[in-house]
Inverse folding.
């Protein structure tokens, strides 16, 4: 077997993303450091040093002949659950932990950031990015504000608004519910004019409000899609796509590093319309074998 077909993963090389049912599934494995599956997918955040564990559970019924020899094993009631532990508590983790609840935010202030195009460019592009979110495609030097707004909304799944003057300044207003957000960064490939460049400044810092989540009795279902990424730190990767699953909160556990209480989940895949629990993408060499 080629040596590059051997994958070894450490806990820091795991990531779990979730999305609503029907979101477009990725079709390729992630490159190292760029694992986000794309529009509509949300990162479950840092995981504990236990990483992600997969199990295969089923019942067996052993059949013997009259001489007492084993002739067949009938297996049924199969499950393929995954277990993971979230170190962070944020909107994504809370949504998995308390399905069916609605959050009301009070006292929040919307953040406003301004993108400035200087040097009067006549061509080229510039990019915008924000930590923890997929990168939108590069924008033309004079991209209309409405076009930028649509691109940011579709890529970040945030209801941002963009106003200003095309080719000069773009005022990006984030939803108040996001509170204080990370400042965007920009890179410039602008041409023409006089030393054209792009820059970003926070003109109104956001204020994080108070979230009220009322948790009542009940066993609400939380069917979602999930993507589990395993990256060995170079270019080898495995991506597990669960089109129909539910992450069930099983309680809090003590983190071995600091004794902090963290949330533990069991992710149960359910069969999809094609009868599959999940689909596995990988870039391991030397594959192609079939096991019945």
């Amino acid at each position: 077997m080629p040596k590059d077909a051997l994958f070894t993963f450490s806990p820091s090389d795991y990531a779990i993303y979730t999305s609503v049912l029907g979101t477009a599934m990725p079709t390729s494995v992630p490159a190292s450091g760029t694992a986000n599956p794309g529009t509509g997918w949300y990162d479950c955040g840092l995981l504990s040093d236990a990483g992600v564990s997969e199990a295969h559970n089923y019942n067996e019924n052993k059949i013997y002949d009259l001489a007492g020899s084993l002739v067949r094993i009938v297996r049924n009631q199969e499950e393929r659950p995954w277990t993971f532990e979230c170190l962070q508590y944020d909107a994504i983790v809370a949504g998995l932990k308390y399905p069916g609840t609605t959050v009301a935010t009070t006292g929040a202030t919307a953040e406003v950031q301004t993108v400035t195009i200087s040097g009067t460019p006549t061509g080229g592009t510039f990019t915008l990015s924000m930590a923890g979110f997929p990168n939108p495609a590069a924008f033309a030097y004079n991209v209309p504000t409405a076009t930028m707004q649509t691109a940011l909304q579709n890529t970040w799944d945030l209801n941002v608004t963009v106003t200003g003057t095309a080719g000069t300044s773009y005022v990006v207003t984030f939803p108040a519910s996001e509170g204080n957000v990370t400042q965007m960064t920009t890179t410039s490939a602008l041409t023409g004019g006089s030393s054209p460049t792009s820059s970003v400044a926070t003109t109104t810092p956001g204020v994080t409000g108070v979230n009220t989540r009322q948790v009542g009795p009940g066993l609400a279902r939380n069917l979602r899609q999930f993507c589990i990424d395993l990256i060995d730190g170079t270019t080898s990767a495995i991506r597990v796509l669960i089109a129909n699953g539910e992450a069930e909160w099983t309680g809090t556990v003590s983190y071995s590093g600091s004794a902090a209480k963290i949330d533990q989940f069991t992710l149960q895949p359910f069969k999809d319309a094609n009868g599959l629990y999940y689909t596995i993408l990988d870039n391991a060499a030397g594959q192609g074998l079939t096991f019945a």
Summary: Helices lie at 91-97, 145-156. Residues 3-54+76-101+216-282 form one domain.
